[in-house]
Amino acid sequence: MSLKISLVVGARPNFMKAAPLMAELKKYPALFAPQLIHSGQHYDEKLSRLFFDELKMPQPDTYLGVGSASHAVQTSRIMTALEEVWLKNPCDLVVVFGDVNSTMAASIVAAKLCIKIAHVEAGLRSFDNTMPEEINRIVTDRLSDYLFISEPSGIVNLKSEGVPEEKLKFVGNIMIDTLVAHLEVARKSGILEQFGLKPQNYIAMTMHRPANVDNPELLGTLIEIFNEIGRECPIIFPCHPRTQKNMAAFGLIDKIDKKALRLTEPLGYLDFLKLQSEARLVMTDSGGIQEETTYLNIPCITMRENTERPVTVEVGSNIITGVDPHIIRDAAFKSLRGETKKGRVPDLWDGHTAERIVDYLRKNVCH
Ligand code: UD1
Question: At a CB cut-off of 8 Å and minimum separation 6, what does 130 contact?
Answer without folding.
Answer: 211
